[in-house]
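Lecture notes, part 5. Sequence design as translation. It can be helpful to think of inverse folding as translation between two languages: the language of shapes and the language of residues. The source text, in structure tokens, appears below.
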């Protein structure tokens, strides 16, 4: 159970002083949290009683500010490359890492069941709460405050670029596709080997990835793993640009 001290510690880590503290409390309130812990007749849930709407708003703010930063930082990059980098920077995996660095979980308000099941460390809960906190910063301090939050907390610090700073995250396209499909409410990707070419010592493989019945993408590679990654990359590009 979070305390006033936990929230104060988080505010210090955020390096932003809220004029309206209640908006931050709402951003830290998971939907599982009742109006009164243990109360026999808790107040009915309303859209204003938890952080779901703030998460929705924060996701849009984050997408805009990350896009703005990438546009300014990499003026020579093609759209596809910028999309891949943005996809990683706004991903649940990256936001979870940022939230853990802030120890955001300590300040969350959770229901008893979520508390007992380790909700303070769950990737989705922490990533969503971080987006809600960003929305709270924006509503309390405006776009400049939100932009500073994103630049200081979400974007890599110092000198960084696509090839050098983030190679591992940007080449695991299977994981990125799985996360994107989940975020979009789509079926999980399924990979099928649909062909092989060449002699045994120099064989290449053709892999098809499917998202439900309508979305498919194929790619060829020197191994099944390589072909699967390439197919996932092409499907991810379809989702990002479509």
């Amino acid at each position: 159970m979070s305390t006033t001290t936990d929230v104060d510690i988080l505010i210090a880590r955020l390096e932003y002083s809220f004029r309206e503290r209640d908006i931050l409390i709402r951003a830290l309130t998971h939907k599982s949290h009742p109006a009164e812990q243990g109360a026999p007749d808790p107040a009915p849930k309303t859209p204003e009683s938890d952080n779901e709407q703030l998460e929705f708003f924060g996701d849009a703010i984050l997408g805009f500010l990350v896009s703005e930063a990438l546009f300014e930082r990499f003026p020579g990059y093609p759209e596809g490359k910028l999309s891949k980098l943005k996809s990683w920077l706004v991903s649940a995996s990256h936001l979870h890492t940022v939230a853990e660095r802030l120890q955001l979980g300590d300040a969350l308000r959770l229901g008893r069941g979520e508390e007992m099941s380790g909700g303070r460390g769950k990737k989705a809960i922490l990533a969503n709460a971080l987006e809600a906190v960003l929305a709270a910063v924006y509503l309390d301090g405006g776009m400049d405050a939100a932009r500073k939050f994103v630049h200081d907390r979400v974007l890599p610090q110092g000198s960084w670029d696509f090839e050098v700073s983030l190679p591992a995250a940007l080449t695991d396209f299977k994981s990125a596709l799985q996360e994107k499909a989940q975020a979009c409410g789509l079926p999980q990707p399924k990979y099928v080997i649909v062909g092989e070419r060449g002699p045994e010592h120099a064989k290449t493989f053709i892999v098809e990835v499917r998202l439900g019945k309508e979305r498919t993408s194929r790619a060829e590679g020197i191994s099944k793993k390589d072909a699967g990654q390439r197919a996932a990359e092409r499907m991810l590009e379809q989702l990002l640009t479509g």
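The translated text above is only one of many valid answers, since several sequences can fold into similar shapes. The mean pLDDT is 84.
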